[in-house]
Amino acid sequence: MNIVCLDLEGVLVPEIWIAFSQASGIPELKRTTRDEPDYDKLMRWRLEILRAHHLGLADIQRVISTIEPMEGAKAFLDALREQTQVLILSDTFTQFATPLMRKLGWPTIFCNELIVGQDGMIVDYRIRTAQSKLSTVRALQSIGFQTIASGDSYNDLGMIQASRAGFLFRSPEAIRNAYPQIPACETYDELKNLILQAL
Amino acid sequence: MNIVCLDLEGVLVPEIWIAFSQASGIPELKRTTRDEPDYDKLMRWRLEILRAHHLGLADIQRVISTIEPMEGAKAFLDALREQTQVLILSDTFTQFATPLMRKLGWPTIFCNELIVGQDGMIVDYRIRTAQSKLSTVRALQSIGFQTIASGDSYNDLGMIQASRAGFLFRSPEAIRNAYPQIPACETYDELKNLILQAL
Fold it and tell me: CA of B138 to nearest chain A CA: how many angstroms apart?
């Protein structure tokens, strides 16, 4: 029995913090783990900026709801969901993902969670599990699934390499060059064909 | 982080074999584990009857596509999917469930699988994992989820009792009486409220 595990950002929707930075007009929020490798420090700094701009969760979700899935993403996902089971595995937060899940037809997503205060401001965040994508793929395998995985980034390599089949999608050249054994593609048609062949 | 695990047959759609028996006009297929407690024997007998009626998978799916989800099921599921993550955990077969998943807006379903021959006839079946609902809930818990479960039948009791919250839905009186500690309800509005309170 197969299940397809897809990364979200960079595969189905744009990088949420970067798109949010543009949509909200707060350029500081473009900072990523490349600039600040300590993820917890980066997240606390981001939450500080949101507070400084008096942006509560509802405001942020309003901005995120102006972000569109990548062109062709919904049709790709719809076609896949008719053929097999699909889970989106992401390190983003449920509350950020929700407006985008609505636009993608409510696929199932496993991600992390923001902790929101009584006043609607984000006060903290909660990581579901360590190495979430790899751990999730391993848990699915433990209950009889064969996994097929695709993503674009370093945090996708674990689930891709642990899966029966795995594909890089629109990955940076550095990753493609470092992992030439992982098939890589650029279009949804190519990715769909690779997945359907693997099924 | 929460995830809701729902039984399929009796909760969102009618019992598939019984509905199929009616829709196909093959009354023998009404036989259940109450009449033949050996599941494997029952399934092999069912597959024999399908073969005798020259019903291949495509024919069966055509009949199943005339079966409708229970009244209010899709609205209930849609409302739930906007609030939290939902998985359908079922002991039916992917290929039988697919026409019904289409009508329910393609929720994610974890179930079993039929093995279909070159000629489109069903030759065998494959169980994903032993005690599939309980095992799946345990695997979800191992990757940081708190589960909330609901079902109507004996094979749902394991996941209901292992979950942070669990509810019987339209259960036979015998089960409700034997498990008075499990909250039971009859309508989607009641079930939705119980689940939202537990979230």
Answer: 9
Sign of the dihedral through C-alpha B173, B174, B180, B184? negative
b/e sequence B173-196, b meaning 16+ C-beta within 10 Å: eebeeebeebbbbeebeebbebbe
pTM of the model: 0.94
Q: Is B108 on the interface with A (CB under 8 A)?
A: yes
Is the complex ipTM higher than 0.85? yes
Q: Which chain A positions have a beta carbon within 8 Å of B76's beta carbon?
A: none
pLDDT tens digits, A60-93: 998 899 999 999 999 999 999 999 999 999 999 9
Beta strands in B131-183 (DSSP E): 146-151, 165-169
Q: Give me the amino acid identity at A75.
A: A
Spatial CA neighbour of A46 closest among A113, A123, A119, A118 = A123
Catalytic residues of A: 7, 9
Give the closest of B102, B108, B127 to A108, CB-based: B108
Q: Sort out which chain A residues have CB atoms less than 8 A from B82's CB and list them.
A: 98, 102, 106
Q: What is the pLDDT of residues A1-26, one digit of tens each?
A: 999 999 999 999 999 999 999 989 99
Q: Which residues pair with B169 in a beta bridge?
A: B185
Q: Looking at the DSSP assignment, which residues form a beta bridge with residue B148?
A: B4, B165
**B186 has catalytic annotation:** no
